[in-house]
């Protein structure tokens, strides 16, 4: 199968994905620091019920954000693996090239638009 994209484009996407990955991992670490459950005084304080509720909501919010970011991290790592295997930009479902414009917007895309729609419906 002929290459769908130039090596220059693939290298640019790889660099972008690596930068996105680095930024996401840093954001995850920052969010972890914001988790009220990690406060050393949390376990031993006798806070009011409303404070406990705020801490619980804060913890759940941080956990949800981290979960979303971890999903994107896994998508980026998978895209980098596809680059290393020479399969970047090829739809995992139909094996057709993913449009370049789509990859420019969402560089970790694993599916063409048609297959993505089918998977989400």
Task: Spell out the blueprint of helices and strands.
Blueprint: H1 7-34, H2 49-85, H3 100-105, H4 113-120
Helix pairs in contact: 1-2
Low confidence ranges: none
- Oligomerization category of the chains in this entry: single chain
What's the main sheet like? Answer: none
Number of helices: 4
**Overall pLDDT level:** 87
Cα gyration radius (Å) = 20 Å
Give the proportion of residues in helices: 55-70%
Secondary-structure element string: HHHH
Distance, first to last CA: 30 Å
Number of strands: 0
Strand fraction band?
under 5%
Structure explained in plain terms:
This protein is an all-alpha fold and 121 residues long. It has a domain at 7-88. Helices cover 65% and strands 0% of the residues. It has four helices and no strands. The chain has helices at residues 7-34, 49-85, 100-105, 113-120. Helix 1 packs antiparallel against helix 2 (49-85). The longest helix has 37 residues, at 49-85. It is elongated, with a radius of gyration of 20 Å.
List keywords for this structure.
mainly alpha, 0% strand, 121 residues
How would you sum up this structure in a few lines?
The protein is mostly helical. The chain has helices spanning 7-34, 49-85, 100-105, 113-120.
